[in-house]
Write a structure and sequence with these properties.
mainly alpha, 287 residues, ABC transporter involved in vitamin B12 uptake, BtuC
């Protein structure tokens, strides 16, 4: 039984799936910290669905899928910003309208021109069948995202906490806003290969939300979320071999289990810790 645990490491496609999943999982984990702080959970969902028409149009034009998806994601982000700036609609309503419109347009294109492109692959991912050119695209996107985060993470943290304070200190909140949106759009494109558009939002939110429950220091939050992203993505791809199930589904389920564990047993923000604090407060009040 134990010797069977090493079987996935004997296949090149599984090794490729595991390390590519770990790479993009780590990047998503780091970005999820900023998404959590900024309250952009719906934005991640929007961008993950907004890339669908870009993939369809790229196929029709014979262009790289990643390029079409990235441009589509950016157009959706710009569209949300444009509508939000010129109407009194709440941000969640704007996001809902824009991303459903983009997703519906993508589904329409795929239904009209179905040959050579699979909606199932876009929505649920296909990391086990990822091609070498796609691996290179994921690696480049991940490297650029990590470089930008390494250079600008402090500015992005300040922007997420207090845009007005960032402006006071000489930073440009608009530039930081679109920098973060661009990173999210690019990462959504890369994640689409592993977990699919349907589950990208989970990888861009859950690790950061879990880390938020475990620490109050942002540098530790980054380390925890990045570790969760890498570990769950690698183990999820590994476990999918034995379960013969969806790789993306395995990854997200593992991340959800860790979130539920942190939600219950977190040292400061967990349910048990909160209950203990309330009990102590009541005892102090009536002592």
């Amino acid at each position: 039984m134990i010797e069977n645990l090493g079987i996935p490491f004997q296949y090149d496609y599984m090794l490729k799936a595991m390390w590519v999943s770990a790479l993009i999982g780590g990047v998503c984990g780091l970005l999820s910290c900023f998404v959590t702080l900024k309250g952009w959970s719906l934005m991640g969902d929007a961008l993950s669905h907004a890339v669908v028409p870009g993939v369809a149009i790229a196929y029709l034009l014979g262009a790289p899928f990643a390029l079409g998806a990235f441009i589509s994601g950016l157009l959706a982000a710009l569209g949300m910003g444009f509508v939000k700036a010129r109407t009194s609609l709440r941000e969640d309503a704007v996001i809902g309208v824009v991303f459903t419109t983009f997703f519906a347009f993508g589904v329409l294109l795929i239904s009209l021109f179905p040959a050579g492109i699979s909606l199932r692959t876009i929505v649920f991912g296909n990391i086990l069948g990822i091609s070498n050119p796609d691996v290179i695209q994921v690696a480049i996107i991940s490297a650029v995202t990590l470089l930008v985060l390494a250079l600008k993470w402090k500015d992005l943290v300040l922007f997420c906490f207090d845009p007005q304070q960032a402006r006071t200190l000489g930073l440009n909140p608009m530039v930081l806003h679109f920098t973060l949106l661009t990173l999210l759009a690019a990462t959504a494109v890369a994640s689409m290969q592993t977990v699919g558009a349907c589950l990208v939002v989970a990888t861009l939110v859950t690790p950061g939300a879990t880390a938020y429950l475990l620490t109050d220091r942002f540098n530790r939050m980054l380390a925890i979320a990045g570790g969760i992203g890498v570990g769950t993505s690698f183990l999820g791809a590994y476990a999918s071999y034995f379960l013969d199930g969806s790789t993306g589904g395995c990854i997200v389920v593992l991340q959800t289990l860790l979130f539920l564990t942190a939600l219950t047993f977190g040292p400061k923000h967990g349910l048990l810790a909160s209950r203990a604090k309330r009990r102590l407060a009541l005892e102090g009040k009536f002592a």
